[in-house]
Design a protein that fits this description.
Elements: E1 2-4, H1 8-19, E2 27-33, E3 39-46, E4 53-60, H2 66-79, E5 84-90, H3 94-102, E6 106-111, E7 123-129, H4 134-137
Parallel strand pairs: 4-5
Antiparallel strand pairs: 1-2, 2-3, 3-4, 5-7, 6-7
């Protein structure tokens, strides 16, 4: 899987179709393509406050490989100038709940019923601060 940049609208539209949502501008996006050049994953960066927080939405395969993690962190902190990167995942998404801390994200809290009316629809919020992202920025 190879990270690609410069196709913000196309990648965000693909990610939105996978999730059943529509991303609203302003946003930036990074895609992940396979060896045939087919888009397999996406990270959409939205709700960006310059010098502050940027929200990250991940969708698709291969988004938490070391190569892609490094690209995400470089993009959020160096290109977008964020000081923190926030990721939210549904409570029911055990894989992402396990992988985000391994990538250096710290659990920050729960937003109840964020994704819907059930407990499984609670959002678990994780954060990565620039000062804790050293291994990905080197």
């Amino acid at each position: 899987m190879v990270p690609v940049f410069g196709y913000d609208a196309e990648v965000a539209a693909w990610a939105g179709a996978q999730l059943g949502v529509e991303f609203q501008q302003p946003y930036r996006a990074m895609g992940v393509v396979d060896t045939a050049g087919v888009l397999r994953g996406a990270s959409v960066f939205n709700d960006h406050y310059p010098g502050g927080n940027i929200e990250m939405t991940l969708v698709g395969a291969g988004m938490l490989t070391r190569r892609v993690q490094r690209a995400i962190v470089h993009f959020a902190f160096n290109t977008c100038g964020a000081s923190r990167l926030t990721a939210k995942t549904p409570y029911r998404n055990k894989l992402v709940r396990r992988l985000l801390p391994k990538a250096g994200f710290a659990f920050e809290g729960t937003q109840r019923r964020y994704f819907g009316p059930e407990r499984g629809d609670d959002a678990l919020c994780f954060v990565l601060f620039r000062e804790n992202a050293g291994r990905w920025l080197n």
